[in-house]
Amino acid sequence: MCGIAGILGRGDLTIIQKMTNVMSYRGPDAYGHHEDSANRVYLGHRRLSILDISGGVQPMWDNSHSYCIVFNGEIYNFLEIRNELSKLGHSFLTDHSDTEIILEAYKEWGESCVKKFNGMWAFAIFDTNKKKVFISRDRFGKKPLFYSYQNGNFVFASELHLFKEYPYVNIETSSIALKKYFAYGYIPSPLSYYKNIYKLPGGYNAVIDLSKLDSGQALKLEQYWDFQIEPFTSIPKNPEKIWAEELIFLLDAAVKRRMISDVPLGVFLSGGVDSSSIVALASRYVTSGRLKTFSIGFSEESFDETIYSKFVADKFQTDHHIDQLSIDKALDILPEVLARLDEPMGDASILPTYLLSKFTRQYVTVALAGDGGDEIFAGYDPFLALSKAKLYSKLIPKPIHEGIRKLMNYIPVSHRNMSLDFKIKRTLRGLSYSDKLWLPVWMGPSSLNDINQLFGGKISLEELYSEAIEKWENCKQDNIVDKTLNFYTKLYLQDNILVKADRASMMNSLEVRAPFMDIDLVNFARKIPWEYKYRKGETKYILKKALEPYLPHNILYRKKKGFGVPIGSWFKEEKLQINNRNLEIFPNSNFAKEKLNSHKRGISDERAFLWNTLMLK
Fold first, then answer.
1. Which of 263, 276, 302, 423 is deepest in the core (most CB within 10 A)?
2. What is the reported pLDDT for 163?
3. More confident site: 45 or 558
4. Which run of H or of E encompasses 135?
């Protein structure tokens, strides 16, 4: 796990060194640079040493000195690929570096080599023979990669703020990205917070022809993988048994792969289904009492889950560690988070995730986490609302919706985790629109009307939510559950959940691995029909069935809480504060002030809008 940067065009060694120094926390163990002024190629790397600590130094050259790589991530099936390449005649300079496997795989299979990889990655290979640079990002975009192509210069980096160290790109806030940030709570790919700087989406490669840099025609983007739900055409006689057995086999293999490490390793344990399943399986490969697990608690009871994490830790006899996020601790770490966060993050659980990562790093360098389980197996609360929402939308005429919404606003505001008034008001807000917009409107911090008022303009629904609409309409399956799964997996997972996990962990020099995003597991799960993911009001139905022999009923079938943070009450009590300077970013700052005052007086719940605003720098 590392940080990478590169300049193709105008540059020098000093600039690339400055860029990599800015993200030293992503790779505190080592650093390296490559300068080729003749070809105008400058590469930089910061290393967090996980595998082959002595041999995996980067930038790394192959044994012919024709190919050079900078790489961030882990290839979990590198040993299998290494064996295959050995049989094809390849030799290796390192003992067991997965970085070298990428180089040799590229030499053997070219750009299609990425289809062989099971892992997470963002890498760039300088091909001196073809005078090109090949860049790739893993299927889900777990590892970040930003790029900009301006004035004949192509620049890429693991973090957005590194571009400020390169003097030949323009840094200007993107107005459309800012509006989408307040619509979604995150900035969807390929947009970034800055104009003309983009995210390479997950599942994409980029090829830069060095001979065409000055012409502006050097960049070619290609999608090599796309998540598609393609259900099995036949159902076995006992799908709960057959599919459950296969799921456990694949999940167990995914966990085992991710336990390969030359440094200490542990598991994030919330006490939910996903993290508990990882602990249950990982504990089979570690001596009793040796597996380290980590949890974060809250003093506010409705947000705290540590009773469940303790139960699971006791059952599997782990070496369990718990820290607690209080308002005082939140205020202490907030400046640290803001200082290092390269894009604003509307998900307040960045705070406990950051604290969990910081706390965990005191004991281990690698942690396994449950990211991806909710998205792939239909684990979120909105799945429970879909059928009721369809019925409401069908029976209640649109003109009456607004009246019902206004009536529901008289329900007193509660800042408990997932309170009834919060669910009712959010659900009704979404139902004013067509089903393709329910999810982003339910989950977003600000409504279309609020965004137009705040920014003093007129943006259409179609433009504001274009990514959500595209993910909904491009789902090949014509049912609302699969379309919802498509939204969560292709948009929310990539641009919110994985961004949060990467930034919070790497700010603390911790590598986080996600077994639920193993490509073998994903390829099987996406073929399971939706009726076995969300079944008779039960989310994650088939996964829970698979885990029944491993986890107790009170863990598998308890009510989901999520990683919520009590920011609503913190803002109301002015423990978290928004000042006029925060609000003056909006052309209509008076409207923003009204929202702040309404929240403090308990008239409306503006926690998400206020948090989004606080996170702007």
1. 276
2. 97
3. 45
4. strand 132-137
Q: H or E stretch including 8?
A: strand 2-8
H/E element, 441: helix 438-443
Instruction: Indicate if 2 belongs to the active site.
Output: yes
Exposure on the CB side of residue 604, measured as CA atoms within 13 A: 17
CA distance 114 to 46: 22
Return the closest-CA partner of residue 366 out of 263, 255, 256, 501: 263
Which stretch of 329-333, 343-347, 417-421, 605-609 has the lowest confidence by average pLDDT? 417-421
- Strand-pair category, 219-223 with 204-209: antiparallel
Rounded to whole angstroms, the Cα distance separating 311 from 308 reads 5
Give the Cα separation of 366 and 513 in Å (integer).
7
Give the C-alpha separation, 293 to 275, whole Å.
10
Tell whether the model's pLDDT for residue 423 goes beyond 90.
no
The residue type found at 423 is: K
Count the Cβ atoms, other than its own, within 10 Å of residue 128.
Answer: 16
CB-CB contact of 555 with 583 (8 Å):
no
Q: Average pLDDT of the chain?
A: 92
The verdict on whether omega for the bond into residue 59 sits within 30 degrees of 0, i.e. cis, is yes
Numbered ranges of CATH 3.40.50.620 in the chain? 239-378+483-556
* CATH class of the domain defined by 2-223: alpha beta
Strand order in the sheet with 132-137: 60-61, 67-75, 119-127, 132-137, 204-209, 219-223
Question: Pairing relation of β-strands 292-298 and 319-325?
Answer: parallel
Please report, to the nearest 10 degrees, the dihedral formed by the alpha carbons of residues 384, 486, 183, 199 taken in order.
150
pLDDT-derived band at 300, boundaries 50, 70, 90: confident
The Cα–Cα gap between 10 and 1 comes to: 28
Q: CATH number for the 239-378+483-556 domain, one of 2.40.128.90, 3.40.50.720, 3.40.50.300, 3.40.50.620?
A: 3.40.50.620
Q: Which value, in Å, is the radius of gyration of the alpha carbons in the chain?
A: 24
Gap between the Cα atoms of 365 and 281, Å rounded: 20
pLDDT at 392 over 80: no
Q: What is the mean pLDDT of residues 151-180?
A: 96
User: Cβ(377)–Cβ(543) under 8 Å?
Assistant: yes
Residue 572, amino acid = K
Cis peptide before 190 (omega within 30 of 0): yes
Q: Which residues of 331-346 are buried (b: 16+ CB within 10 A; e: fewer)?
A: eebbeebeebbbbbbb
Helix 273-282 × helix 306-315 angle, to 10° = 20
DSSP 74-118: EETTHHHHHHHHHHTT---SSSS-HHHHHHHHHHHHGGGGGGG--
**Rounded CA gap, 360 and 505, in Å?**
9
- Nearest-5° angle of CA 285, CA 286, CA 288? 130
Calculate the CA 275 to chain-centre distance: 16
Neighbours of 577 (CB within 10 A): 12
Q: In the chain, which residues fall in CATH 3.60.20.10?
A: 2-223
pLDDT one-digit tens code per residue, 473-531: 999 999 999 999 999 999 999 999 999 999 999 999 999 999 999 999 999 999 999 99
